[in-house]
Amino acid sequence: MRASLIQIAVDEGEPVNSRRARVSSLVREVAARERPDLVVLPELWTTGAFAYEAFAAEAEPLEGPTYEAMAKAASDAGVWLHAGSIPERDPKGPLYNTSLVFSPTGEPAAAYRKIHRFGFDKGEAVLMGAGSELVTVRTPGATLGLATCYDLRFPELFRGLVDAGAEMFVVPAGWPARRREHWTLLARARAVEDQVYVLACGTGGTHAGVDQAGHSVVVDPWGEVLAEAGDGEEVLTVDLDPARVAATREQFPALKDRVLGSPAPRR
Which residues does the UniProt record annotate as the domain CN hydrolase (predicted)? Predict the structure, then answer.
């Protein structure tokens, strides 16, 4: 299974419509050049993760312009596309930070509303609602577990995704440069403790004056970094062996020794 992470550099002077068209073209170009099975984009790349004042102005319905553009890009490219996240406007509720996943035919495969909102008492934490559902996506290569940026700090979410069958965590983000070391550390920690691949795709550039960490990273089930980007716009393409997840869990069966965890489902 081959995955390409497209680390978008957000330029505040670039109109959202222009960036949407540019990223759509990038998906097609990367797919044609790298021949991946899966393409991953970052969090809130249309607006910038720290451009709080733009959330309401640029929020769109789930099946809005970004949805339409990404569905077409996935279909044109013939790839599974994790299209990063958008500021979603729910007509019956608040805004949400919502990730979109499309199949190679352009059909919607999943939508995940970010559960842990960053900002404490400002920003995303007060401007957006919290999701409540764990989401996985079954692809021919592996089952993907979906999380977004700040979620990376909450291991219980990822344990839940493992219990739901996830073999790869896909984590789009708009992570700030001043906490870049946490980004890499946490991505590796989630891989090691859950014995999965982690595909963590960040942004470059600056969001509302906040320099972005970049450094998208792919980590294997032993915690080894397979590839890491720099600070700017970049594409990481990595060949992954989903069988290594089961092999790692067999060689070092730590997950079998869990004592505390998710309650057993009622039958």
Answer: 1-242
